[in-house]
Amino acid sequence: MEVLLLEKLAPEAMAWLEARHEAVYFPQLQDDLPTLRKAIYKTEALLLPRKLVVTKDFLEFGPRLKAIARLHEGSDNTDIDSCRDRGVRVIQCATANVRSNAEYLLGGLLALFRRGIVSSLQGDRHAEIRQGRELNGSVVGILGLSPSAHALAILLHAVGARLIGYDPAVHHSAPLFKRLEVEPVSLVDLMSQSDAVSMQMVYASRYERFINANVLEHCKPGQIWVSTSRSRLFDIEALAQALADGRIESCLLDGAEAGFASKESPLHGAGNLFLTPRLGAHTREAHLRASWYVAHRIHESLTLPRNSGLDSSISAPMALGSAP
């Protein structure tokens, strides 16, 4: 086969790809690594889920591979150098879920500010009336200026929030702050002034446990947290203590790593910690954008010669839209 897909494309994009290449959707292989290795021997392009790690050894089983695609961003599950050495293009759609993640973060802030709504949605028709808070007039700390923060800033300005921001990889004088109408502040000031913190920092190993006890000691009491960032950015013990003593009133994290709040974790049983399974990126619209991008880039990788100047590493993101 030319293309082996372990994740499902949107029907329109799948039909477009099938009209041009021999493409097979076989999701069962993601749980059967020995069979997958045999299947990729004559495969030219792969669409893989997040959990499957591409290593140098994995690539040895696919001598004809020209492209490995993902419907998500993030390269920590792919040996980029080995792919480059073998001339295998790594395709990632980095912008498809920008809007969906921004709306998730906004929805999380609204839900945690008005917890009584959540109780009613869970089926409690006689839920206790709880006094909520309003985003209008609140100070929201934007922690990390990744693309989803750009869309979120527009949404938060529309509801009347005041935005302050910090990103360890962006200088406080960068024009981006002015463009987003986000006041640059130090990390300590962001923690001490924010009624709520939205974290969408890009993960890097040097930022592991970035949110630690030294940072959380500056929390404004009763602070709300929402995050689509990797949970490895949190020091688990420090977060558990902040949730327990009221510095953080409630926290919503999307896509925490396995074991983050397991029975062995100090976060286990924390009633004000809410975890969702990467829901931020999962909307019909985001899936359609990512599907079209991946389908076109796979077609491009299989039809153009390897020496055509095509980037053999991570593909550049496309602009938001339903198709390239």
Name the beta content range: 15-25%
State the CATH architecture of the largest domain.
Answer: 3-Layer(aba) Sandwich
- Secondary structure class reads alpha/beta
Tally the structural domains. 2
Biggest beta-sheet profile: 7 strands, parallel
What would you note in describing this structure?
The protein is of the alpha/beta class and 324 residues long. It has two domains: 3-96 and 284-303, NAD(P)-binding Rossmann-like Domain (Rossmann fold, 3-Layer(aba) Sandwich); 98-276, Rossmann fold (3-Layer(aba) Sandwich), CATH 3.40.50.720. Helix content is 33%, strand content 15%. It has twelve helices and twelve strands. It has a seven-stranded parallel β-sheet, with helices on both faces. A five-stranded parallel β-sheet has the order 2-1-3-4-5. α1 (11-18) packs parallel to α12 and α5 packs across α7. The two termini are 25 Å apart. Residues 308-324 have low confidence and may be disordered.
